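Example record

One chain of 225 residues, shown exactly as stored in the release files.
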Amino acid sequence: MLTACSGVQTKPKVVAADPDDAGVSRLAKSDINEVVELHQRAVISDLKQLMLKLYRRNPTGRHDKERRTIEESVDLFFSQPHNSGYPQWTTMTPNNIVRISLDETYQGTDRVLPFIFGLRKMLMSSYDDHTAFYYLTSISEQKLYNSARNIEISAWMLAEKRNIQGELLILSDSLEHEQRNLSYQRLIGQMIATQDNLAEIISHKSGRLIKTFVVKAASMVFLPI
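Predicted structure tokens for this chain:
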């Protein structure tokens, strides 16, 4: 039955489908599988909103600004598989892609693209790159936990990394002379909570303990996934 279901798909899935729209494939899913898919959809949806907000805050460097709107650019990015395109980053780990986006020596004009691309690959890695979950599909609570800590580190880098002139490399939350805006922090906080919540659910379900870490964001040492 599952073979038949997969055979009708002509396009790779980029994120878990809404369980209510899964049709006959729901017969091969447990309740926990659907919970995992809902969490994956939520965290990727928040990441998409983060990309929109960052491009609106940093419009000049966008790589395709002459060809499409911000909304079209973001929709196109998230319509493609998370590990496709951008051959310049193919051999790099997701964490290192995030790191170069906030490296002063990075030569590209669009820093938002590698930042989000790296985060998306890192998040999908925490789901073992699955976009569908069935009875025999398992994921690691430790990878989910580690990804949440890596989001925290990425958020610190986003807020703190500056060029030699003292200017932020990617603008996000308010600058000193601007009206206070913490919407980026809330959005990133939702992503962290989603991953942590699912890690706890999987840990409870499997009976495996999560090895916790005290992460010092300023050290910029990402956890393995």
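Notes: Residues 1-9 have pLDDT under 50 and may be disordered.
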